[in-house]
Amino acid sequence: MALSGRLTGRTSALLRQCRASASSPRAFSTRTSTRSLLVKAQRPVEKSAQYQIRLFSSSIQRASQPEPAATSNQFMKDGALKKAANPIDLKKVLVIGSGGLSIGQAGEFDYSGSQALKALKEAGVASVLINPNIATIQTAHVLTDEVYYLPVTPEYVEYVIQREKPDGIFLTFGGQTALNLGVQMERMGLFKKYGVKVLGTPIKTLETSEDRDLFTQALGEINIPVAQSVAVGTIEEALDAAKVIGYPIIVRAAYALGGLGSGFAHNEEELRNMAATSLTLSPQILVEKSLKGWKEVEYEVVRDAANNCITVCNMENFDPLGIHTGDSIVVAPSQTLSDEEYHMLRSAAIKIVRHLGVVGECNVQYALQPDGLDYRVIEVNARLSRSSALASKATGYPLAYTAAKIGLGHTLPELPNAVTKTTSANFEPSLDYVVTKIPRWDLAKFQHVKRDIGSAMKSVGEVMAIGRTFEESIQKAIRQVDPRFVGFQGDKFDDLDYELQNPTDRRWLAVGQAMLHEGYTVERLHDLTKIDKWFLYKLQNIVDCTHEMEDIGSLFGLKKDLLMKAKKMGFSDRQIANAVGSTEDEVRARRKNFGIKPFVKKIDTLAAEFPADTNYLYTTYNATTHDVTFDDYGTLILGSGVYRIGSSVEFDWCAVSATLALKEMGKKTVMINYNPETYSTDFDTADKLYFEELSYERVMDIYELEGATGVVVSVGGQLPQNIALRLQESGKANILGTDPKDIDKAEDRQKFSEILDSIGVDQPAWKELTSVADAEAFADEVSYPVLVRPSYVLSGAAMTVIRSKDELKDKLEAASNVSPDHPVVITKFIEGAEEIDVDAVASDGKLIIHAVSEHVEQAGVHSGDATLVLPPVNIDQVTMDRVKEIAIKVAKAWSITGPFNMQIIKALDPEGGLPALKVIECNLRASRSFPFVSKVLGVNFIDVATKALVGRDVPEPQDLMAIKRDYLATKVPQFSWTRLAGADPFLGVEMSSTGEIACFGKDLVEAYWASLQSTMNFRMPEPGEGLLFGGDITKDKNALVTIVDYLSPLGYKLFAAEDHVKSFIEKNAKNDVSVEVIEFPVKDKRELRKVFEKYDIRGVFNIALARGKTTQDVDYVMRRNAVDFGVPLFMEPKTAELFARCMSEKLPRKEGIPGEVRRWSDFIGGKPL
Question: What family, per the record (predicted)?
Fold first, then answer.
């Protein structure tokens, strides 16, 4: 039997040899069936005989009636699974979270940390979580017993250990942040000092996997080839190493996340610059031989302390080596490996994981020679990573949960598979579908940013699509990345060949352009891109089908078989309409007439070989039957889709909270979302989970199949809002909450404004314009500065403050590309105003609850990038009452049911009367700050909103702002400037942060002090070190001076790059201060780095009025390099002043545990959430 298995494998390999014909068939099941056979050959025999019959049983069971799925309780009763034979004795465990979302470390750790907390709860072990990320699901008492919103640093974690006295600690669920923390604390001897046991993978293993020399040595012991690398600590050593290894070279920083500080160098000059930057981020860098162009393959491996070891999933990058796996298109299971290659790498992965002594989950990345059996291990991550979140969602195997159970002392055979409930966790999943992951970048939002993608990650989120063929899977994924895309398509490029050879974030569009419109052959594309021909032939199938439909040219010429073929290849109705010159609705009608509808399939981890009880679903046209029944008539909840700048984990918190609230009311829930990093796409969040597109077509398909009773569109950010009106009008779907016609009245500037006028609510002067001449005339009339924005935006995309006529002309030419169907709106921009955020819930137009937060920054900084304070410190009672009055009027005017959010600016009256309150924005949906206000005030706003949506148990109106509190919280943004090479770190109306953090305190100083230290890799400038000052001294006259007044008594050395800054500070400062002007090379990064080192510059205050015009601009160079050299940068006057105030009050540090180290439940008085 094993022989026949091997033969199937060989035939598939043979087929692949003669892959010249595009249609060479490739059965999905080949790999999986072989795998299950060969696994058994390697398993120790004592693991009971139940595994031995697996392959036969599948065919036998199919012949007879399908058996009802066994429940896990029944499984336990039968004695197939036992309790842990030797559990670790624990009363309380500390879990370290990953902090704010940043590029390279995003929502996947919210999901994995949540699963770990779930495992602890089941085991009856008390859990304490340290994570300053207030937007995630895990920082709530639903999952964890106690939460500390504090910086993830040794200093603060030690305070918490002193206070909580835990027995154990989990370091593998908080990404690189938690892992680095663990290594630091071990070196400081803190775990030993307090008797805290590190659970799961031991620290020694973590160090071995992170330190390149130890790693190479360990793999050498078992004869596993590693990419040849030399670890160095200086630039000179790097150059010497390169001479030995030979160019091209890849430089990597040790102990860094998502390839931060890595890149390719083809000669000495490039290596010098690369090494200079990387050495600021890490004490050790690795100089390695570059294997660009090889295949990149990953394996996810799980091992328990009893040495049971399985590979859960293997994945293959669509892009060859050279692009970080987080920035690559990834396909699972691998499609182009021969059987021999597959098993060679699988065996090596198991060997490595056993040798390193990993306990829990681990990810092994390989480079594989494209036309031979040579391979190298690139790296091993002995923690949960982005890939493991993807593997979990792609296979339905709960990796993080299993890893946590293993950390508590369980072995794999003792654990039930939590998804299928009918098998043990000691099995390898087999897939009868293809999963494609595509990253989402938002590079267009930044000025001067380099758009190439390489070994350092730049993407902010990712999508995952499931299909029965590669074509279906990749086309779904492309549409998920951005609703603008219809599927595999092209775009205009100046130099297509250059674009294909040098990957950027628009690479797949270049491939599409070449194949669809320029007639490139597979051979030519392969030579340019080094993408495996198998993938290119599959894309060619899509191209051929497109051309076939275009040749027919009309909807009525489309016969049933061609329409069916297109749907099987993942074409959307809109894409087919484009090809034949029709409309989406007409194609949909014709398709339904032909009886062509999608089928719903389960992800059951066992390729249907066992009956499995899962609710984890996807739709496909490559099927003939449904795997589920549709008798729930549940409520559809539309998730937030891909994380991007402006829409992140906050909306996932909203979607999950709404789901849990509906469940509590006894309603059946159906979640639609396609983001593998989220908690909402976990198998046990909703009653049914569809891993699907959030497009009109797909949502209507599911709505009709499920016979759903309603759709929730207000908890998933902007994406569900955009299709709400169409779902109701064309699809006749029942939208719960605010009427989509009213939503439209708030999204459309003209309608929005008229309603505000009618209810007597003020707004800044504005006008909607269609020509440049009209725009110029209006701007002159209201006087500059003005704000230019297109209609329908998320997170201020394409909004800009314009200060002159020339700027206006430039901008308008750019804005017309942003939204061709929409004219542009110009608003008077009020300088020096304060901004107020209002989050509220209404029911039938009546205000139920509201929260008022104030921004620290002046208006003009996007609210997603602003620092929020709640309860507010500087808003008087009269203003609070007026703000509430506006909320009441708005709720009534739009007859809102559900969540809504407003931004109001408060501008002083020159005559000395009451300040003007002007509404600048209103969203009739949950906003980014909902989790923050809910957790600070101790009332779950989404819970209340969900009750309003279904009209059940709606609470009486309550004024939460009238309650006096003895604490406050500050929410600060997490930026990822370091990742975005070249981008100007400057805050404006365009949002640029990737995540957020919040900390609590008894006052503003305490809360903000902790919040800022919680941002990633923040290092406090200590007294005696150097501070560099710069920026604009004309406008905010007092900002730099105020900062110096706070800091000068602390004994910092003060520097400036320009004489006028020096004289300005010395003349106006309160104390007698001296500022030294230092040399400041703007062109040579290496020289500049020496300057920073020479003067020990550990903090930069650069208060700028506008973005740098050129890359030689002194202020731009100062801001950019502060970021590149890992030095804290303060570039906004109000937050810089506040932080200087914090430093003056908090430094030097006092003895004892600081006041901000308190349980969240102590601050808010209980566990209401």
Answer: Belongs to the CarB family.
Choices 3.30.1490.20, 3.40.50.620, 3.40.50.1260, 2.60.40.10: CATH for 765-829:
3.30.1490.20
**pLDDT value at residue 38:** 35
- Give the integer Cα–Cα distance in Å for 493 and 508: 12
Q: How many CB atoms lie within 10 A of CB 722?
A: 17
Q: How far is Cα 373 from Cα 370, in angstroms, rounded to an integer?
A: 8
Provide the angle, in degrees to the nearest 10, between the axes of the packed helices 212-221 and 203-210: 100
CATH of the domain spanning 92-206: 3.40.50.20
Q: Report d(CA 949, CA 955) in Å as an integer.
A: 12
As annotated, the residues of the chain forming the CATH 3.40.50.20 domain(s) are 92-206, 600-735
Q: Which residues pair with residue 673 across a beta bridge? A: 691
Residue 102 identity (one-letter amino acid): S
Domain 737-747+832-964 in CATH 1.20.1300.10: no
Contacts with 452 (C-beta within 8 Å, 6 or more apart), sequence order: 502, 503, 504
**Helix residue spans in 665-748 (DSSP H):** 696-706, 718-729, 740-747
Question: What 8-state DSSP symbol labels residue 997?
Answer: E
Count of other CB atoms within 10 angstroms of residue 1090: 13
Class of domain 468-596: mainly alpha
Instruction: At 131, give phi and psi (nearest 5°).
Output: -160, 115
pLDDT in tens, 510-567: 999 999 999 999 999 999 999 999 999 999 999 999 999 999 999 999 999 999 999 9
Provide the CATH topology of domain 1024-1146: Rossmann fold (3.40.50)
Which of 1099, 1068, 1140, 1016 minimizes the C-alpha distance to 97? 1016
Query: What SS3 class is residue 857?
Result: strand
CA 607, chain centre distance (Å): 29
Expressed in angstroms, the distance from the first to the final Cα of the chain is 56
Give the tokens for residue 711: 């759709």
820 pLDDT band, cuts 50/70/90, is very low
Cα–Cα distance, 202 to 93 (Å, whole number): 16
Alpha helix locations (H) across 730-791?
A: 740-747, 749-758, 772-782
Q: Measured between alpha carbons, how far is 406 from 301 in angstroms, rounded to an integer?
A: 13
Dist CA 184 CA 181 (whole Å): 5
Is pLDDT at 133 greater than 50 in this prediction? yes
State the architecture of 600-735 in CATH terms: 3-Layer(aba) Sandwich (3.40)
Which residues on neighbouring strands pair with residue 72, listed in sequence order? none
Query: For residue 1007, which phi and psi values (nearest 5 degrees)?
Result: -70, -45
- For residue 977, which of 568, 248, 448 has the smallest C-alpha distance? 448
Residue for token pair 């759903």? 708
Scanning 1056-1132, the segments in alpha helix (DSSP H) are 1059-1068, 1085-1094, 1114-1124
Domain with CATH 1.10.1030.10 in the chain: 468-596
Residues facing residue 345 across a β-bridge = none
Residue type present at position 880: M
Per residue, the 3-state secondary structure of 257-311, as one string, reads: CCCCCCEEECCHHHHHHHHHHHHHHCCCEEEEECCCCCEEEEEEEEECCCCCEEE
**Main-chain phi, psi angles of 268, to 5 degrees:** -60, -45
The DSSP code sequence of 524-564 is: HHHHHH---HHHHHHHHHHHHHHHHHHHH-SGGG--HHHHH
Predicted confidence band at 5 (pLDDT cuts at 50, 70, 90)?
very low
How many CB atoms neighbour CB 1023 within 10 A? 13
pLDDT tens-place string over residues 585-603: 999 999 999 999 999 998 8
HEC string of 665-679?
Answer: CCCCEEEEECCCCCC
Q: Are 366 and 375 in contact (CB under 8 A)?
A: yes
**CATH number for the segment(s) 226-435:** 3.30.470.20
Quote the CA–CA distance of 1104 and 1035 in Å, as a whole number: 9
Q: How far is it, in rounded angstroms, from Cα 980 to Cα 1119?
A: 13
